[in-house]
């Protein structure tokens, strides 16, 4: 778990507000806190990051991370980053062994379509130093949080709403309609829409990307929809074998870590099966 936040627009945010926001973000990432700043004519860009080191824990992988004139802040993990790295390593010089660098490598090669290659959970923002734009993306199932806010000065984003409040340095207006709905109907009323308990603060929908230029939304689109490929001719035994192999392969790439790992068990058959596979099949 890392923390990201930032801004693009006409407002120059003071260093005191940046430092205060980074301090708020420490609980999401105690290993490193830093920020990126860029001014283009009358537009200001700020990217903030608080890191919890999982892959390549060396300082060289701290964020904001820059390469090819682009800068990224990233929360999450690209599970298949080693496979992606092998596809391009003959023609690429790497600075780190992190999945963060792989995102920038694929963005440099494929632009916005880079997300089509990623298997993982993520919320990231890339400042494109050539186009002077922000590329904002959230993973397919919305595992990693990302909140957005537009006002007259520009565009804000963050892993938590309070980071936006800290950068704006103003109180946020409560969304009483959702509060009342929640008090009356409970959790079932949540996540039906992308609204939050504060007005004009929105969750970025899963599998959604944005292009921001000078604090203005230029493009918003859904980059992925699930597809069902049904094979009615497969035998039951083959289906069992295939299902088991896919679970093993899926778990294998998700257990990549340069720090010790742990399982949190719910007590159900699914989590117990994952632990069993990790021990018996993968040798953890």
What features would you describe in this structure?
- The chain is α+β, with helices and mostly antiparallel strands and 284 residues long.
- Helices cover 28% and strands 27% of the residues.
- It has seven helices and twelve strands.
- The strands form two sheets. Strands 2-3-1-9-8-10 form a six-stranded antiparallel β-sheet, covered by helices on one side.
- The two termini are 22 Å apart.
What multimeric state do the chains show? Answer: single chain
Global shape: globular
Instruction: Describe the largest sheet.
Output: 6 strands, antiparallel
Mean pLDDT: 95
Question: What percentage of the residues does DSSP assign to strands (E)?
Answer: 25-35%
Short description:
By secondary structure, this protein is an alpha+beta fold.
Name the descriptors.
7 helices, 6-stranded antiparallel beta sheet, single chain, alpha+beta, 284 residues
Topology:
Layout lengths: L2 E7 L5 H10 L7 E9 L2 E9 L13 E3 L2 E9 L2 H8 L10 H12 L9 E9 L4 E6 L8 E4 L3 E5 L2 H8 L7 H10 L16 E2 L4 E6 L2 E7 L13 H19 L14 H12 L4
Antiparallel strand pairs: 1-3, 1-9, 2-3, 4-5, 5-6, 6-7, 7-11, 8-9, 8-10, 11-12
Helix pairs in contact: 1-4
């Amino acid at each position: 778990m890392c923390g990201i936040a930032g801004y693009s627009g006409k407002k120059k945010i003071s260093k005191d507000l940046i430092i205060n926001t980074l301090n708020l973000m420490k609980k999401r990432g105690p290993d490193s806190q830093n920020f990126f700043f860029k001014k283009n004519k009358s537009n200001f860009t700020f990217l903030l990051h608080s890191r919890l080191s999982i892959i390549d824990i060396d300082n060289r992988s701290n964020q904001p991370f820059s390469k090819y004139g682009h800068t990224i802040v990233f929360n999450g993990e690209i599970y298949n980053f080693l496979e992606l790295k092998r596809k391009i390593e003959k023609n690429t010089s790497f600075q780190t062994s992190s999945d963060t660098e792989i995102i920038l490598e694929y963005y440099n090669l494929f632009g916005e379509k880079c997300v089509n290659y990623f298997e993982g959970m993520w919320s990231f923002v890339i400042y494109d130093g050539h186009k002077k734009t922000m590329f904002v993306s959230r993973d397919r199932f919305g595992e990693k949080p990302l909140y957005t806010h537009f006002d007259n000065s520009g565009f804000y984003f963050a892993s938590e709403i309070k980071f936006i409040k800290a950068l704006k340095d103003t109180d946020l207006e409560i969304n009483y309609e959702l509060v009342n709905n929640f008090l009356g109907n409970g959790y079932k009323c949540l996540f039906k829409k992308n609204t939050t308990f504060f007005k004009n603060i929105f969750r970025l929908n899963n599998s959604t990307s944005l292009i921001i230029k000078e604090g203005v939304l230029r493009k918003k689109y859904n980059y992925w929809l699930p597809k069902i490929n049904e094979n009615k001719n497969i035998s039951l035994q083959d289906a069992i074998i295939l299902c088991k192999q896919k679970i093993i392969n899926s778990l294998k790439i998700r257990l990549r870590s340069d720090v010790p790992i742990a399982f949190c068990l719910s007590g159900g058959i699914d989590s117990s099966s994952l632990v069993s596979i990790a021990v018996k099949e993968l040798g953890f």
